[in-house]
Design goal:
GO terms for molecular function: metalloaminopeptidase activity; peptide binding; zinc ion binding. With 950 residues, the protein is of the alpha+beta class. 39% of the residues lie in helices and 20% in strands.
Length: 950
Amino acid sequence: MWGRRSIAASRRAALEVRHRIALRPSSPSFFSSLPSVPRQRTRPRITLPTSRPLFAITPVRHCSAEVRMMASSDRDTLPDVAKPVNYHVSLFDLQLGGSWEYKGIIKVDTKITRATKEIVLNSKDITVQSAEVFGQDGTQLAKATDISYDKTSERVSLKFSLDLAPSDVVLSINFTGTMNNVMAGFYRSKYTPVGEAGPGAPKEGDFYYMLSTQFESCDARRAFPCFDEPNLKATFDFEIEIPKGQTALSNMPVKSERDGSSADLKFVTFEKTPVMSTYLLAWAVGDFEYVEAMTERKYKGKSIPVRVYTTRGLKDQARFALECAHRTVDYFSEIFEIEYPLPKADLLAVHEFAMGAMENWGLVTYRTTAVLFDEGKSDNRYKNRIAYVVAHELAHQWFGNLVTMDWWNELWLNEGFATWVGWLAVDHFYPEWNVWSQFVAEGVQQAFHLDSLRASHPIEVPVRNALEVDQIFDHISYLKGSSVIRMLSVHLGQERFLRGVADYLKSHAYGNATTNDLWSALSKASGQDVHGFMDPWIRKIGFPVVTVAEEPGQISVRQNRFLSTGDAKPEEDETTWWIPLGIKSGDKLANVDTRALTAKSDNVAGAGSDGFYKINKDLSGFYRTNYPPARLEKLGQSLGLLSTEDKIGLLGDAAALAVSGEGTTPALLALLEGFKDESNYLVWSQVSSSLANLRSVFAQNEQVAAGLKQFTQKLASPTAEKVGWEFKPNEDYLVIQLRKLLISMTGNSGNASTVVEAKRRFDLWATGQDKTAIHTNLRSAIFSLNVSEGGRKEYDAVKEEYLRTDSVDGKEICLSAMGRTKDAALVQDYLNFVFSDKVAIQDIHNGAVSLAANAKMRHLLWEYIKTNWDMVESRLSSNNVVFERFIRMGLSKFADHQIGDDIAAFFTNKNTGAYARALVIVSDNIRTNASYKERDQALALEWLRAHGYA
């Protein structure tokens, strides 16, 4: 799944993990906009912990069967008396309006492993009417005499008066459920159709509805009673009764149709699925149409149909995703050396979706902005997003679906790998996008940020109860996981690495596997001890900073755990990581030393003896590098010798070290000055990110803020003038993105010519004189700048555009721009609007992101939350993922200890289960920002004055 965030579990889980709650991301960058999955777990009342490591585990190496048994005994799983083999799921009597209830019957071919009078399944928000057990010949063996529910553990117990003997039986259950509106389980999404809706389309009030499912990680149990654990795989037969004018989809192709219970209804039955986990089952019902392409590669002698489904009127916007999808299916079949295992591949755009996408086998579901692109109306940035998300989810068809992690503690096996190989596919099809540099600028840096907090956790963490799993759907599982996979693939060589992956998939096809199984396959393919050097990266918290000291004829290198606060205690700095040094040296940095640092410190003879070297080639290793000041200065003067990834890494390291106190803001500013002639968008994105953080942290010091504004303007304006405002036919994607970025940077730093031109174009557009005055790729830059510089007129114009736009990305762009206002009264109006029914729940967090980036106004967001808490909680509590995102993204930017204390005090007696880990992240970030501000603001002002900026 792409874009999950975490939530709290149950009271017991919260206590057992010592308040280690959960998380996920955002800034204007691509990786920080990863949307997420909803949960409504029991929300414990807890007290915020002090800042400390949230997880402590002992690494397990070369996992034996005995160790695995011990590990499984530490899991809170269903009783092992019953094992599912095949489910037959039948849903009927769907109430398409009003109560939105439905009825269902499941018949589960089940192995009873030992005599029992009780069968326990997972169930949530389901009412079981009756349960019976039949023999294989259809003879009734027993009927449930007692049906009871444990809401905390989300289980239903079926008790029988007679012992069920070990045998193969059929468990039959009659139940009712609800098509809810919380984006979890079997749920409904409202939308306004494009054109006339088809016959039978569900409608209630002013909206039409489509129906779809979201089961990962633990929400199949919301749709039907089931054994909802990833290693309890089974096959599935599925059928559903729907209006005759509507379309039903599921994992497999349609097998047959028959008349339903009335003349206007029909039953649609689907082919049996392969063996798979419950969280991968999916179905959807709606007024759908599709675009289709056939794979070029033949599978069992035939091409496979690849389709992208949308609600009526939107299918033309699915053509770019289709182009990506059918080629990606063929590409992964080739590099994984296993043919795509299903007879069809469907993608579906879902109107209300809390994450980015979900990898249901054969029926992948997507948020609309992650799969639809309207040529001429959509920002080109969304093409990049769609290509990646499509590839990420299709990678899961093998890595996650065909081979599934044994238990949720190894979620990273799914998500870390799918993230890495998703970008591998995008790079294969769109090399001109330079996506590995994008990954370094966004993905790696985001992972660094979270993993530098004490609130981080290891990539692989113990998960006792499946309800805890949401805690690890975050930047650590996705982005740190993919970063260390990139590090390993570079070290082993991509071809050898993929050969090991292919062997892993072949060995465990249609089964479950562990991290150690992957390491074993890679060790065999490479002839290296992958277990030995990768285990600390997976099972230990944090990452290192490599500090370099120069001596005659050699350099010395030392590794220590890096914390953003720069104060790692001895007990927090016990890990010794395997660190590939990747030392580039020589006049043109043409020589590469591939040795690794495997001790706390070491000497490297000859490095730098000719006067020039750089550590960590292309930032392929997941660590920061701390150079002596003179070396950093020399590297800054030799940018022409560095790769794009090297430049990004150099800037990211300098910025992070300034925050931690192991470097300084003057050193960072001096390095940034050297990039005034840079022409690469991805390097500029890192420059922009570094400057944005400086301007955010020091925003309340007016002299420093003014100096940084002047610094930004002088740094970016020359390149902005070269790139200009006008778009050329067939212009390079990265040039388009650079133009947008530089207009934002120069405009927001007060460049008079940029502001004047942005206002001119906005006025032509807003007055209707020229609706084409704002290029589609400049909407975000021009809208934001005009709202920031203007007043009620500009704000209202963008608000009206939000309400009327039919562009798939238009609402996101407008909502973000409106939050840039510097008028306190408009901030109040904005927040009221964000919490109104005009903004979908899945998008509310975008309002928090926008105001958090508005340094002058962000305090009003906190005041609004406090003043309107009951309303805020009521609106967000229906979707805990959105709740968690809103709190974390809205409050993490403050740089004031007093505000941090106020936030902690406010939530002391609140029911914080849905966002408690978010509060730990907020606390860590505010503490880091405030300490950095206090330590470096005088130094920053001194440097800015000395260099004529203040």
